[in-house]
Amino acid sequence: MALINFGGEKETVVTRKEFSTAKARKVLKNEVIAIIGYGVQGPAQALNLKDNGFKVIIGQAPEFKRDWDRAIKDGWVPGKTLFDIATAVKKATVIQFLVSDAAQRKVWPVIKANLKPGDAIYFSHGFSIVYKDQTSIVPPKDVDVIMVAPKGSGTSVRRNFLSGAGINSSFAVFQDATGRATERCIALGIGIGSGYLFPTTFQKEVFSDLTGERGVLMGALAGMMHAQYDVLRANGHSPSEAFNETVEELTQSLIRLVDENGMDWMFQNCSVTAQHGALKWRPIFWKANLPVFKKLYASVKRGQETREVIRDCGGKDYQKYLGKKLADVHNSEMWQAGAAVRALRPKEGVKATAKNAKGVGGRLSN
User: Fold this and answer.
1) CA distance 84 to 45
2) Cα 43 off chain centre by
3) Do 158 and 306 reside in the same domain of the chain?
4) Residues 14 and 151 grouped into a single domain
5) pLDDT, mean of residues 107-117
6) Which of 191, 258, 349, 364 minimizes the number of CB atoms within 10 Å of its CB?
7) pTM of the complete model
């Protein structure tokens, strides 16, 4: 492991330099990996492992035809590399349990009934293990219980793998029955294409993940965008102007500068007027949001968020409910304006002419 200074605190991480893909293949050379569930994370992790030279099969309930057909489309062959869940678990030594959190409690009896001593049960989220009082998922004592949690969606896991970049992942061992749990876990993390792996626990992962998804990564970001857009519109700004100032400049310019070199780098590459205003309002937004994030974390910690996920997402009407919520977003003026703005973006590869090159960078160069 490498010792890295993260803002003054030293942590150990695993990179592909000290734990190569070749080493991972050696660790798992006698293992058969079953990916259970071909929905969000399943396809990306399965295809990355396959492309990296590991023995992979898919376990998918045939009655979920969309996912079964998607697996076939991706090259998995029924009866050879694609099986029902029970058969896949029997054939495998590593079972990557990648069905949705809400569905795991329903599928678990089939998994548990077919586990063998020495198998490894692998999760990409601490949900089911940490909230066992809600999920009733308690693995037997004679199997390894491990986790690799990519810090991105399945789409990003696959895209980053294909680009050669990889994606950061956390890893944890909950139960080491074989004495090999840690090396199995790290090897699988490297196998799915992680850029680097940082250690955590199942509890810390699920607390941080549920907070992040509801907070900055998705919920808070969407809510803040909506609020700013509404204020601009209420004050007479056009939909195109409100969307550009709220979303387009963030996603197409500013967040890329943050990605390159940090928030201070983004501030340095903005106008003096933008710098001054942002630095003034930064602590105001911090103070306003801190109580909300404390409330959110407390809700995660006491299990309220997971109770709601299990109650709502496992229901027979969830897809109908989800469709309505997503349609509300899609059909809102803000995101309809966004569709029009995206359609007007210059296509990549179009070179700026000498005449218009002077304007490249817009107000960021002022």
Assistant:
1) 18
2) 13
3) no
4) yes
5) 97
6) 349
7) 0.87
| Residue where one domain finishes, among candidates 141, 167, 200 | 200
Query: Both tokens of residue 215?
Result: 């907070």
C-alpha of 295 from chain center = 23
Residue-number span of the structural domain to which 321 is assigned: 215-348
Same domain membership, residue 224 and residue 147:
no
Q: Are 136 and 108 in contact (CB under 8 A)?
A: yes
Structural contact between residues 117 and 111, judged by C-beta atoms closer than 8 angstroms:
no
Give the count of domains, the chain.
2
User: Per-residue pLDDT tens for 259-268?
Assistant: 999 999 999 9
Clarify whether residues 181 and 225 are in a common domain: no
Instruction: Name the nearest CA neighbour of 21 among 44, 69, 54.
Output: 54
First to last CA, the chain: 45
Q: Report yes or no on 123 lying in a domain.
A: yes
Residues 196 and 269 in one domain: no
User: Quick check: 353 pLDDT over 70?
Assistant: no
- CA distances to 20, 225, 252, 269, 271 from 261, rounded to whole Å, are 27, 23, 16, 11, 17
Its sign, for the CA torsion 194, 195, 196, 199, is: negative
Residues 135 and 181 both lie in one domain: yes
Say whether both 174 and 268 belong to one domain: no
* Contact by Cβ (8 Å): 96, 34: yes
Kindly state whether residue 206 falls inside one of the protein's structural domains. Answer: no
- Is 125 catalytic? The answer is yes
Residue 351 has a pLDDT of 53
**125, 47, 55, 140: which is closest to 94 by C-alpha?**
55
Residue 214 exposed, middle or buried by CB count within 10 Å (0-12, 13-18, 19+): middle
Rounded Cα–Cα distance for residues 205 and 331 (Å):
34
Are the C-beta atoms of 82 and 76 separated by less than 8 Å? yes
By DSSP bridging, strand 2-6 and strand 9-15 are antiparallel
The CATH number that applies at residue 64 is 3.40.50.720
> Are 226 and 189 in the same domain?
no
Q: Which own/partner contact pairs does 88-92 have at CB distance under 8 Å and 24+ positions apart?
A: 88/34, 88/36, 88/57, 88/58, 88/59, 88/60, 89/34, 89/36, 89/59, 89/114, 89/115, 90/114, 90/116, 91/32, 91/34, 91/57, 92/31, 92/32, 92/33, 92/34, 92/57, 92/59, 92/119
